Amino acid sequence: MKCDLCHAEIVEIKFRCSPEKFARAVKNGLTPNMQELNLSREQYKKDFGVEFDDRGIPWIMSAWKKMAMVSETDWALCEKCKARVETKL
Ligand SMILES: [Zn+2]
């Protein structure tokens, strides 16, 4: 199982965040960090069929936000990300 935000391996999911709560955190400025964006490069290529480059970062950020705002499932979070989300609530 992986953290939905930073993709770190989680042995046991202890923290779940409701979509409403998560959307509120995103609205308040929660974003994935650069490392997490890099991890999305493969997904970007898979989803859009083009190679990701730095020009895509603002784009992928806004796509991520849109996706996060409309997500209807709980977010499984590692301890670090749970803390990050909570600072934005
Ligand atoms: Zn995490």
Description:
This protein is mostly helical. The protein has one domain (15-87). Helices cover 53% and strands 7% of the residues. The chain contains five helices and two strands, in the order βααααβα. Strands 1-2 form a two-stranded antiparallel ribbon. The radius of gyration is 13 Å and the shape is globular.
Strand order of the largest sheet: 1-2
Count of individual helical segments: 5
Task: Give the tally of β-strands.
Answer: 2
Average the pLDDT over all residues and give the rounded result: 87
Series of H and E elements: EHHHHEH
Q: By helix and strand content, what is the structural category?
A: mainly alpha
What value does the Rg take, in angstroms? 13 Å
Roughly how many Å apart are the termini? Answer: 25 Å
- Cofactors, ions, other ligands: zinc ion
Approximately how much beta-strand content do the residues carry?
5-15%
Percent of residues in helices: 40-55%
For the report, how would you describe the main beta sheet? 2 strands, antiparallel
Uncertain parts: none
Counted up, domains total: 1
Shape by Cα distribution: globular
Q: Which SSEs are present, and which pair or pack?
A:
Blueprint: E1 15-17, H1 19-27, H2 34-39, H3 41-48, H4 56-70, E2 75-77, H5 79-87
Antiparallel strand pairs: 1-2
Helix pairs in contact: 1-4
Bound molecules: zinc ion.
Zinc ion is lined by residues 3, 5-6, 8, 77-78, 80-81.
